[in-house]
Amino acid sequence: MAAQVAVPAYDDSNSANNRFKSRFRSFFWSSVILATSAHFVAFVYWPELTTEDFSFEVVELTALDLPPEVDIPEAPKALARPATPVVATADISEDITIAPTTFETNPVDALPPPPELKKEVVPAEEMPRFTPFTVAPEILNREEIVDAMRLEYPPVLRDAGIGGTVQVYFYIDDRGWVKTTRIAQSSGYEQLDEAAIQVANLYRFSPALNRDQKVAVWVSFPVTFAVVH
Fold this sequence. Notes:
alpha+beta, 5 strands, elongated, TolA/TonB C-terminal domain, 4 helices, two-stranded antiparallel ribbon
């Protein structure tokens, strides 16, 4: 017969799970007391918080005067229809008629010669005109131009904070030298226009190229005077 071995019954009363359950109540209340104490200390000793001042001033708006009302003229009257032609019944005297014009009465040899057309040739440097080019001229002395603009800026306008842009025509020869300058569009101030011409004469450019050939061209550049704060 096989031998029988007695196995004792398992007692889980002293297991880790039962020990944790028995201590849960003490853990829970200890945690509550500790959290309450930490919050109390934080509220008592935490530095006082203040809100940032975000107030702003309201700018008073000023009303603008409206432009005067424009009087719209009345619509033009409709064109009168032409009168119905009427055939004259009275005899018209031949003295007031115009004689017929024919080559017999007005031979070609007797006609005066036509007036000669004199075409005035204006030099290229006298009048802005377009010249074909493939490579545009570039300014070579920008720093010198900036210094010249500071010197030529009219003090009266500069102190008053008045500036403006003058569009200037430049006639540049095939060496890149400025030969002629003209005002293309005024700034509205005569003193600024005169100062822009003084500065424009100091510009130096690289020659314009039409393919591989240097050409003289007219170009337009702005000269701007502004007060830098």
